[in-house]
Amino acid sequence: MPGSLEALDITGIQIPYHYRCPISLELMRDPVTVSTGQTYDRSSIESWIATGNSTCPVTRVQLSDFTLIPNHTLRRLIQEWCVSNRNLGVERIPTPKQPADPSLVRSLLSQASSESNPIQTRVSVLRRIRGLVRDSEKNRSVISSNNVRDVVLPIVFSSTESTELTHESLALLAMFPLGEHHCEFISSNSDRITFLASLLSHKSIEIRVNSAALIEMVVAGTRSLEQRVLIGNAEGLFEGITAILNYPFAYPRGLKIGIKALFALCLVKQNRQKAVSAGAAEALIDRLADFEKCDAERALATIELLCRIPIGCAAFAAHALTVPWLVKIILKISDRATEYAAGALLSLCSGWEELQRDAVAAGVVTQLLLLVQSDCTERAKRKAQLLLKLLRNSWPDDSIANSDDFGCSDVAPF
Q1: CA 144/CA 152 separation, integer angstroms
Q2: 395-410 pLDDT, tens per residue?
Q3: Of 62, 58, 27, whose CA–CA distance to 43 is shortest?
Q4: Each residue of 240-272: pLDDT tens digit?
Q5: What is the pLDDT of residue 1?
Q6: Domain covering 181-315 assigned CATH 1.25.10.10 in the classification
Q7: In CATH, what class is 17-88?
Q8: What's the angle, vertex CA 305, arms to CA 303 and CA 310, rounded to 5?
Q9: What angle do CA 177, 239, 233 make, to 5 degrees?
């Protein structure tokens, strides 16, 4: 690779070639050596191997194994070079945390599961494992492959364990997706569901969110409709999830987990009335502006689901911001969000003439006309056309007949 034999000049700073990764040509932050003796930046060589390559990128020699040995000497030299050039704006690379050794992970999981160990020792071990998971995706993969769920799941629901141990194991379990048999283990036992629902009212918001995360995974991973209905019947479940959405302080993870759990539960028809009775409609509208894109789509999908039952429609109709927010969202977030917003508006305007007038006053007609001419989904366009037809009596006399937008649309006057 001839280009790598020259110093790289970036904004006047020459980076020595042996400090640069032969793959990315960027300054190495975590240099590691492969079996051929060549050194690469860890992230670059891991990506190379992950895409199915089994040779050394520089020498093209077959790798005898995929062990990556940290090159501490080179990393320290790079750090010293960074420090010597800090007056030129070069920041010192941090010392990277090394991936967890599989044998260490197995030892830690064994210590955590051993009832002969003191409770506080087991708690400390679980916290250490959580720290390793947060450090890197590599650690997460290693820990996941060592059956962490099978080790931790019994601890969460063991009535003989300490509260601290239970909460720490719950926090670790919530960091990994559950398999179908794990979901069955929880959903098939009403006491376990009742326990998780009780944690939704805990004074610690972290414990409440961890419980909601586990509930969401169980609902989404349970095939039996009967069991999903039984989960929704747990006392205080919807109130607890709604309270997470209403949490007064900025807690992005709480919003994300809360809406995922509420959406998963509301996919079951029998659960929707319970959600509305717990105040879900008000919480969704109040928080709609705070969701990130993917979560906003889930929130709007949940709103449309709840609008399919009379009590849900009534709850949304009673909130002054429902119609203005739904109108504003059309064509603003994504095709899915637009479709869900149009569907919810169609349900609401079908039941209340005053909401039809509110929607028109909020500018829905122009939004719908733009929608039917856009590249949005056919379902969204169909909902928009139905909504336009429904609103025709609410259009001001001079708002549509003289509208250039209407004239160029593929929706004819009704």
Answers
A1: 11
A2: 665 544 434 343 333 3
A3: 27
A4: 999 999 998 778 899 999 999 999 999 999 999
A5: 38
A6: yes
A7: alpha beta
A8: 95
A9: 70
